[in-house]
Amino acid sequence: MNTLKTLGILAGISLLTACSEPKKETTILVTNKLDKERTFETVSVTKDFLKVDDLTGLGIRELKSGTLLVTQSVDNDGDGILDELLFQPTIAPNSEQKYEIVPIDKEAQPTAPEYCYSRFVPERTDDYTWENNRVAFRVYGPTAQKMIEDKVPGGTLSSGVDAWLKKVEYPIINKWYKETLDGTGNYHEDTGEGLDDFHVGVSRGVGGMAVRQDTAYHLSKNYTTWRTITTGPIRTSFYLEYENWDAGGKLIKESKIISLDLGNNFSKFDVSLEGSNEVSAGLTLHEKDGEVTGNPDKGWVSYWQPHGDSELGTAIVAPKSTFIGFEKYDIETKDLSNAYAHLKVENNKTVYYAGFGWKESGQFSSQQEWEAYLDEFSTKINNPLVVTLTP
To answer: First CA to last CA across the chain, in angstroms?
Structure first.
């Protein structure tokens, strides 16, 4: 047999062997370095991290048990290409788990209720509202602002964040709006699911921003642009942009991505801000009959207050590298008294978390339980799960 023929046969054998060998799956290791179990924490893996060209049709399987996990794929920039794959593992204290990235048919992918939801609400002026299985929020748009400026009833001029006090896991946004608008209900009244009785006005609500100049706080107006990024079983996120605004002679340019994950009481605010190297995120003091507390070492400020026939805790939590301090700002002007967390802005970016716990929901029975949750939440965001590719 001549040499060329022999080489051709060997090459064919090699190709057949390569084709018959099973493809080796990509494996990742998730490590929990804390002495407490980690649940309802979202892990994100990107196609660059996984060294793949496309995330379409990929799932995540726990290596030890062979169990497929619920996942959510996200296109962050709206270009039609998936950017990250989300999942929420359960990791025991001081331990690690291995997971395989596997091709999976859509029919085989585990499903879960899509509790993480948000949308623009044109039927109620131009609210943008979001929720998960524990909490709900809303902010106000340019039409609501113009109504106030034109002295048209029903508008809202505020960049504060409203809290919708829900006490059921299932989504309520569409239901509450529909019932209120068609007259079959009213989301200002509790019929068993919760209600919206949280006053915002021009206050910061739960996490609205301000820039301090000397002793005064300056505020933006309503958002001007919105874009829904994702909704699903694990996360909802969206983009907001604001008209440039004046803060005591500083021109502020502001936009943000807000996200809310399953099982969390806090929305995450990823803020892009030009014009100041410090920003403050606030909590309205309402009737000033509650208690402002804070923990500089943990990076949080909280306001626990009487609320109707119940009690309510609101809070700002930030990474310790971002959190500068906190302040109770109390003045006579209506709605301008807030508890503020002061935050660093580095490279025109800052991150913080804002949320609440309503005693009536059954999630927290006391101020002590609420503040223990803040300590634990802070510990987790400052010690995130570590994700690595394994050989």
So the answer is: 41
List Cα–Cα distances, 182 to 69, 117, 118, 194, 195, in angstroms. Answer: 40, 22, 21, 19, 17
Hey, what are 384's tokens?
């995130």
- Token readout for 47 is 């196609």
Residue 1 has pLDDT above 80, yes or no: no
Q: What percent of the chain shows pLDDT beyond 90? A: 92
Residue 112: other Cβ atoms inside 10 A: 14
Residue given tokens 């920003």 in the structure block: 279
As to burial, measured by CB atoms within 10 angstroms (0-12 exposed, 13-18 middle, 19+ buried), residue 344 is middle
The pTM of the full predicted model, rounded to 2 decimals, is: 0.93
Task: Using the structure block, give the residue that is written with the tokens 């001081």.
Answer: 94
Those residues with Cβ within 8 angstroms of residue 37's Cβ, 6 or more apart along the chain or in another chain:
90, 91, 92, 93
* Domain end position, chosen among 110, 127, 154: 110
Residue ranges of alpha helices (H) inside 159-311 are: 173-182
What would the mean pLDDT of 310-333 be, rounded to a whole number? 98
- DSSP annotation of 288 reads S
Q: Is-contact 194 167, C-beta < 8 A?
A: yes
The total domain count for the chain is 2
* Alpha helices by DSSP H, the chain: 3-20, 47-50, 142-149, 173-182, 367-382
* The two structure tokens encoding residue 321: 């590298």
Radius of gyration of the chain (CA): 24
Q: What is the pLDDT of residue 25?
A: 77
Of 110, 135, 157, the domain-final residue? 110
